[in-house]
Amino acid sequence: MVLAVTVMARSLPDYAQLRASEHGQMIVVRARDGAELVSLGPSYGQWLEAGEIPTVMKGAMIAVEDRRYYAHYGVDPIGVLRSLWVRARDGRWRQGGSTITQQLARNIFLNNNRTFDRKVREAMLALALEAKFSKQQILELYLNKVYFGGGAYGIDAASRLFFSHPATSLSTAEAAIIAGLVKAPSRYSPTADAEAAVSRARIVLRLMEQEGVIGPGEAAAADLDTVQLKQDHGQNSVRYFTDWALPQLDMLLPQTFEPIEVWTTLDIGMQRAATAAVQTNVPKGAQGALVSLDRDGAVLALVGGTDYVASNYNRATQAVRQPGSAWKLFVYLAALEAGYTPDSAVTDAPVTIGGWSPRNSGGRYAGTINMRSAFAYSKNTVAARLGDDVGFGTVAAMARRFGITTPIVTNPSMVLGTSEVRLIDMTQAFASVMDRGRSIAPYGILKVTSAGGEMLYRHEPPRDQMLVAPHVAAGMTDLLQTAVSTGTGRAAQIGRPVAGKTGTTSSNKDGWFLGFSSGIATGVWMGRDDARAVAGLQGGTAPARAFADFMRFATAKRPIERFETELVLPEWQLEPDDESWFGNPEDYYFIDEYGERADPFGRGVPPDDERYSDEFPTRLPVDPVRDPSRDDRRPEPYPDDQLRPPFPAPSAAGQDLLDRATGRNTAPRETSRVQSQAEPRLRRPADTPRE
């Protein structure tokens, strides 16, 4: 055995290597203001030399884990015999015989398997460690590497995790709490069960007094009830956000095992307000979820349920539920894009489409009303008529355009929200309307840095896209604002402009409210996980009230913003062109066969004519009757009594060009300077070769 221990001691890593070894990757998650939200994975804190570790901490650990630490050589025969005697007396293992050195060997080199082979190897490694290193070095390694729960390895990490200060300033009571964690970190963790932690610490204080680490007076003065535990900033609901955001690191970062810090978009104050809004307003026996997005897509708050500890299922990002009338957002967007306006007259009357006959809530019909009123009071028959008019496939395409990723049915009843959706997707759609029809992509990670401050990733805003014309988004905002001011969403009013929509499914199984104000878009869902009905749950009740409670806090420090709901269009957008809003048609141009710009209005371009502007290659005639100095390039028709172009109107293509394109005349020939009557006269550079 002496030979085996000698060989093993020589093969052990040196002290510097043991000190540098770590298990796993530590991830510190920070809020948008830099405050630490949560630390995931192993946390090692600062390495403390033996002389920097408080004496009371050393004494507490030895008193609890290995009272004969300075009397053995790695394995304590008396401790082993005592453990065997307790096992024979009680019929089960109640007391371990492992020394601090054995625990260190197990933590560094082995696992926790309860096998005889592992115990033998552990004992041999402990003897080898004692042969190679001093008692102070072994105790220093142990106190800096032992696991204390919550991902904390070492006393400094544990002190920062539980008490928010370094281990160099640990009090007697705090040292007793930390020393008591080694036996069962998850059971005695102060953040999980404060009463159990304090009860265990009382035992530690008694053992410290028995072993002479502290005197009776110091033991009596250690008041465990006054120990201040670290505040949980985001409450347990912050884990819903981290569960959604952190898996994205696999795509954002190259593979790395070094400790990293993740700076997120989450606002601590808004997260607390969101948690309180959901918990306060959710009906008894139901669940709730909330997502809030800034105008650029940054996730400000995310709550996936009423209690993460009780259920970590994220209802904000994972659950799919029917949105009810909140789906009418896409129906009315499609109608507005098709030419309707908020003032357009629609009919609220019984209707049957493909054998399906929708009815309004309450069974009442208003006859001929405008779209604004129909949306505000969530008239189902009007939504059905609009969907039938623009096409149910068009409504589905509009939902896809605005970020809905779940399957969408295209039968007539889809206009009332029969397709299941995710809360975060619906909130994204409302945020895009808030941003005047531009695309919004939710994101939660701002940047990632290494432990040394090196930048590993920084969020770059994606290039946004116009999902609908600005006047369509303005019309939709008009409808959404009316729904809150006078319609079904009145409970969501917060004393400043709010636009939003309620949603309620059949038998009150789901209640929704989604809306925006002052650059923040928020969605709220409530219901039961088993999809059973909830008495009195409508989108305009509990979800709308939760929305209002949260938004009052979220928008308090933001300026009041008036919505842009005017449908005033530029003159050139008044033409019946589906794509006219993409730009001014006067800026369109075509390319001729020589790669030059050609006149897009079919009049040809004479090579030298002073009546043409030199500003654009596509030169347009100047009307001599009008003021020549006026900068008006819009093409106008030529009346018979005014000057006509001195050249004939061109056809689609000249015969010479068609012959060469079809191969009828492949022999090269010099192109005539005089163009045919059927071919437009085009300018080209002098150095361009002719065929």
TrEMBL record:
Domain (Penicillin-binding protein transpeptidase) ranges: 294-517
Name the UniProt key words of this record, in alphabetical order.
Carboxypeptidase, Glycosyltransferase, Hydrolase, Multifunctional enzyme, Protease, Transferase
Q: What is its EC number?
A: 2.4.99.28
- TM spans (from-to): none
Keyword Cell division attached: no
The protein's superkingdom reads Bacteria
Quick one: where's region Disordered?
599-691
Q: Which residues form the Glycosyl transferase family domain?
A: 42-208
Query: What's a Pfam family in this record?
Result: Transpeptidase
Q: Give the EC class as a word.
A: transferase
Known catalytic reactions:
[GlcNAc-(1->4)-Mur2Ac(oyl-L-Ala-gamma-D-Glu-L-Lys-D-Ala-D-Ala)](n)-di-trans,octa-cis-undecaprenyl diphosphate + beta-D-GlcNAc-(1->4)-Mur2Ac(oyl-L-Ala-gamma-D-Glu-L-Lys-D-Ala-D-Ala)-di-trans,octa-cis-undecaprenyl diphosphate = [GlcNAc-(1->4)-Mur2Ac(oyl-L-Ala-gamma-D-Glu-L-Lys-D-Ala-D-Ala)](n+1)-di-trans,octa-cis-undecaprenyl diphosphate + di-trans,octa-cis-undecaprenyl diphosphate + H(+)
* Basic and acidic residues: bias regions: 599-617, 624-643, 680-691
Record pathway = Cell wall biogenesis; peptidoglycan biosynthesis
Q: Which InterPro entries match?
A: Beta-lactam/transpept-like, Glyco_trans_51, Glycosyltr_51/Transpeptidase, Lysozyme-like_dom_sf, PBP_transglycosylase, PCN-bd_Tpept
Locate the compositionally biased regions of type Polar residues.
Answer: 663-678
Q: What is stated as this protein's family in its record?
A: In the N-terminal section; belongs to the glycosyltransferase 51 family. In the C-terminal section; belongs to the transpeptidase family.
The protein, known as: peptidoglycan glycosyltransferase
